[in-house]
Amino acid sequence: MDTPQSASPTLALEEHRAALAGRTLIELFAADADRFSRLSLSWDHWLADWSKQRLTSQAMDALVAYAHERNLPAWISALFSGEKINLSEGRPVLHTALRQQEDTPLLVDGSDVIAPIRAAQARVRTLAAQIRGGLRLGATGRPLRHVVALGIGGSDLGPKLVCDALSPPRSDRGDGADVAFVSNVDPEHLTRALAGLDPATTLFIITSKTFTTSETLANAHAARAWLARALGAGGALAAHFVAITGNDEAARAFGIAGADILPIWDWVGGRYSLWSPVGLPVAIRCGWDAYAELLAGAASVDAHFREAPLEANLPVLLGLVDFWNARLMGYPQRIVAPYAEALKLLPSYLQQLTLESNGKSVLRDGSPVDGPTAPALWGSPGTDGQHAYFQWLHQGTSTAAVEFIVPVRAAHPLGEQQSMLIANALAQAQALMRGKSLDEARAEVARAAKEVPRAAAEALAASRVCPGNRPSTMLLLPELNSRRLGQLIALFEHRTFVEGVLLGINSFDQWGVELGKALAGPILAALKSGVEPADADASTRGLAAHVNALIRPR
Fold first, then answer.
1. Neighbours of 452 (CB within 10 A)
2. Does residue 514 carry a catalytic annotation?
3. Which of 133, 154, 168, 466 has the most crowded Cβ, counting Cβ within 10 A?
4. 336, 381, 337, 342: which is closest to 354 by C-alpha?
5. Helices 214-231 and 187-194: crossing angle, nearest 10°?
6. Which CATH class is domain 107-291?
7. pLDDT score of 414
8. pTM for the predicted model, two decimal places
9. pLDDT tens figures, 453-480
């Protein structure tokens, strides 16, 4: 695609940013009676409102024009058609094909990818039904009722998020098997997951595209040793393992039967692998129908992203806001505050999605990026955050863009709690925008303590001032179920892609992840042998010496 490599915003965008200097959000609303309608979008009973962001409708028009200048429509088409847009690895990016609802063939290098996807989905459905129905038997002939998923990164974060978000209350679980997730090589993680489990009824799912991921394989070997201590070594242990990998040979060498090896393809990035057989834990925990609805929800966003014009395209418009905040406003942090306990793992999932995708410092041609790329992302459920980091948001010296994610209808209503939840979210967004002036704070202090000396009253008032003018976006989704969760995840996937296109970077590689892993090898060998790591800096040598002294006390 003939796309300019420089990601410098155009002069028009810079002029719109400069025009905002000294203007508050309150003033912007006062100047434009239609601001909310111009800077919000309703789609499939969702409402996205970015009118509390520090931009104008004219700036949004300029951003849409900039997206055309960056050939965004062509990049969207290339994503769905299977072009090799992961340029550094020479691969297509086809997570959207994994949730495609129709069986229309999609050719990559002359081969249809849809047929093998359907075959893999049928295997996932069958295996999940066997486990949920108590038909999968272990080495002793007893049903496998406990599942421990071993993975890391995208092999862990996506399925774990969905299982946590969609798991029904215990009384409604039916045939669903218990599913635990282990990603950390810290032995405490696996130890805690296995506590109280019966080896005879425990199944392990090992997820690693290469089947060489060191953390995952270390946990897999520890799991096999745990089984062997209780059940004896031998081929019968194979019944206790399933692998999801692109390396069948290595999985078989580990001792996993060929029928229990599910595929993951090289055109599926780890952070997008939830939609592949990596989603097996979801089908086991929540049932195939719930997993199918998750896929269908994501596919509905795919269709909207692919077909809607940029000016009415929800992932595009939110991606433009993300780009504006990162490049034009220079906000170094982005906060995600879901007002839903079921979405408490969403910020962790989004950290990998956005930061592994767009935490880059070179353009697609290898030249340096001439400005900031992805801001740091963090967050937690909003109601908890209100009693923690929201103080920093309201009165701290840094400005961060906040995103509120609010399911409107409760899955399990209890009195007025859902209304209280929503009221808190709307109020926090309003408070970030309007703040509290010094005059308002003075009046508040006067009402609370009329006899306070003037100097003390002024100090009390100053401590209560909130500057306001803090940017936020509000996402209202109708409810949180499988379909809506699929839509939410796909929405973030596509807006991350949009931001990457506008920045001029490749959002689909992650070479920075590999550096620390490569350096860990020699250090691990040195710790095992009790020697000083070769070719290491003085700090690393000193730290390793201290570790060796604790491991091998004299």
1. 15
2. no
3. 154
4. 336
5. 40
6. alpha beta
7. 85
8. 0.95
9. 888 889 999 999 999 999 999 999 999 9
